[in-house]
Structure prediction request, 61 residues.
Amino acid sequence: MAVPKRKSSRSKQKIRAASHRWHAPKLNSCSNCGSAVPSHIVCPSCGTYKGRKVIEVAEIA
Ligand SMILES: [Zn+2]
Prediction:
């Protein structure tokens, strides 16, 4: 079994741990209406995905 040659320093451990930190999801703008939408998600305001209407969005009056 492969074994680490050197003990990883406190600094390297901290740098590695920092990469597992939670990040806020990145938002893209909708190509149809321009609202902020997470990637790979149907736009909740207009119901389109990749320029195609996928779902009907109920209007709240
Ligand atoms: Zn949209």
Notes: Residues 10-18 form the longest helix (9 residues). Residues 9 and 61 are 59 Å apart (CA to CA).
